[in-house]
Amino acid sequence: MARRAITGFSNPTVKALRALRDKKHRKREGRFLAEGLRLLTDARESGRLPQTLVMAEGRDPHPLLAAIEADVQAGGGDVIETTPDILSKITGKDNAQAVLGVFDEWNTSLEALDREAAQIWLVAQALRDPGNLGTMLRTGDAVGAGGLILIDDCADPFSAEAVRASMGAVFTQAIAQATWAEFLLWLRTGKGQLVAASLREAVPYRGAPYAAPCFILVGNESRGLPADYEAVCDLRVTMPMKGRADSLNAAVAAAVLAYEVLASFEA
């Protein structure tokens, strides 16, 4: 299938792609945007190809982009060439990348997870900042985690902000979404240690008795974890705070704990 050119801002395809920045429309369509050659390359290497590939006119040629385009065309996808201004309109950014892809969202149910696939899993409860969500995905990729489980009302993992902050990890990490009750039921039907940073009957995070698969739980950025959620954790750990701050950013706390757990498993 040959490329098709779009030159008008009022083109229906442009309007449809631009609408994917809106969460309600994104959920209704079951599709999301990913911008930039690095993200699209990570997606391809993870076995995911965009339905639609949009490229800017006058871009510099690149072998990785040529490979993505060939795969999209071979799979019957749509390849569009348009102006940088129209790409900016779609993404809502003045300095839009020269390429973006439109991907199908995938199954984010707990049943789609294989808990035995990794020793470490990250779990976030009521995480509201898409930047933190993307950072947790990136951390999970870095430590070899299986994925990120989003509990209760979290930010959308397929928003442009979360996808961008993940630096491609949205494609390498499994993602699940569930209520607390659903997660707890699923967790207790198999192996899994639930660990949270806490001040309640907690032990120092260094040298704590971590066990695989380890599910590292962090809470909302401003409220932290509800007390009843902490109460059912198998292990509660505390991290020293030497300054005036009484807590870490949620994504930072997850990263500190994840690396400590990783170190304990590799010791």
Describe this structure in words.
This protein has 267 residues and is an alpha/beta fold. The protein contains 11 helices and 12 strands. The strands form 2 sheets. A 7-stranded parallel beta sheet has the order 8-7-6-11-9-12-10. It has a 5-stranded mixed beta sheet with strand order 1-4-3-5-2. It is elongated, with a radius of gyration of 20 Å.
Features:
11 helices, 2 domains, 7-stranded parallel beta sheet, 12 strands, 5-stranded mixed beta sheet, 60s Ribosomal Protein L30, Chain: A, 267 residues, alpha/beta, elongated, Alpha/beta knot, 37% helix
Any low-confidence stretches, pLDDT <50, length ≥5? none
Measured as a percent range, the helix fraction is: 25-40%
Q: Specify Rg, calculated over alpha carbons.
A: 20 Å
The CATH level-2 architecture of the largest domain is identified as 3-Layer(aba) Sandwich
Task: Let me know the number of strands.
Answer: 12
Distance between the termini: 53 Å
Q: State the secondary-structure class.
A: alpha/beta
Q: Look at the structure and give the CATH class of the largest domain.
A: Alpha Beta
Within CATH, the superfamily of the largest domain carries the name SPOUT methyltransferase, trefoil knot domain
Strand content: 15-25%
CATH topological fold name of the largest domain:
Alpha/beta knot
Order of helices and strands: EHHEHEHEHEEHEHHEHEEEHEH
Number of domains: 2
Q: Which overall shape is indicated by the principal axes computed on the Cα atoms?
A: elongated
- So how many helices? 11
Largest sheet: 7 strands, parallel
Average pLDDT for all residues: 94
Give me the oligomer status. single chain
- Strand order within the widest sheet? 8-7-6-11-9-12-10
